[in-house]
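Homework help board

Subject: predicted structure for assignment chain

Our instructor gave us this sequence and asked us to write out the predicted structure in token form, then describe one feature. I got the tokens but I'm not sure how to describe them. Can anyone check?
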Amino acid sequence: MKRILHILFAIAFALAAILPANAQNDTIVQRVKLHGISIIPPKHFEHDSSSNRIFHQGTMTSIQIHIVTNRNFKRITSAITDKYMQAQGLEPIDKQATTMQDGNEAIIYRSRFKSNDANGNEMYFIRLMLFTGKESTIWATADFPECIAKQIEAPITNSIKTIQQEQ
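My token output:
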């Protein structure tokens, strides 16, 4: 009986190690480097080295990443209030503490804004803003049309949680 429990424990431990790695099957496996930061982008996204972003042309979706040097992300996020977001033209939806793939703490803000598509038609977009880092802050912004949020928000979130500063 004790041997069976050890075997079951070993199987459970192995599955726990394997499943998180496969949970990102919506991303490619190759890291893209963007000015000292790397990310595993969602499938079918392209890298634009001139603007420090990755994008998907067909869905009007983009992820931009910036570094705010010598400023901890907790200090920055303490100043981001609903009133501040509204002044920036954003409609706050929620704020969530999360953990990056590398184990670091992060905060993701989710908001909504109105813009125009390529044909000038007015539409709503979702904006995710992820803040993480130690001495300096890594700030990722992902924008995508609200009408496809159910299909694309999870792959985008999984992707931005892979961001890490290159050594």
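Reply (TA_rk): Your tokens look well-formed. For the description, you could write something like this. The chain has one domain: 2-165. That's the kind of observation they're looking for.
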